[in-house]
Amino acid sequence: MLGAFIDAVSWDEALERIWQLAKRRQSAYVGICNAHSVVTAAQDPAFAAALAGAEMNTPDGAPVAWMMRKLGYTGQQRINGPDLMLRYCAVASQRDESIFLYGASSETLSLLQKRLERDWPTLKIAGAYSPPFRPLSVQEDADIIQLINNSGAGTVWVSLGCPKQELWMAKQHGHINAVMIGVGAAFDYHAGTLRRAPLWMQKRGLEWFYRLVTEPRRLWRRYLITNTAFIAGAARQLLSTGNKS
Fold it and tell me: Residue 235 pLDDT more than 80?
């Protein structure tokens, strides 16, 4: 899609693919791609390479799922980060599997862990780490890799925001012995430090509009400029493939 590789998967398929990687503790990563991700990949070679190296990229965002349906993948659902994380935690709590949380602030991580432990008392949280808001030193990077590997976690849920989380996962590919999943603002949503759009807006593909209204100064460029670029690029691709519907 606009040069980015997005997987056509169902919820069950996405969860199963992550589980198969996790139980082998295979070093891999999963991207959750919305319109902003697709446009960024078309403009930034390093980010495009990060997506290309992912084991799976799910279609997050109503525009991406809509585009996939137009391209022939009828019935394609939106596989978004926050819901994927909760669905996976629900099934992981029933298995002998542990997870690791990486990203957000220490306060958010504390609230998130309490929420997850409340909802799934049997869920094993092997560890959590809030990285500093600056580039890590070589030693710090090595210490984090060791911390995660020693935890025994099969999945690492990464909440750093796009494109930082995808670039971080690509860098750690081959070093962290777990599957990493970049889930954007999921930690803040589930911790309650950031309100998510009402369910009716999510179902109608308006979650981006809710975020724009609630955080206009930070997100206006992403949603107004990149969404426009996505629409233009999608139209060109559909015309080039002969799909004018």
Answer: no
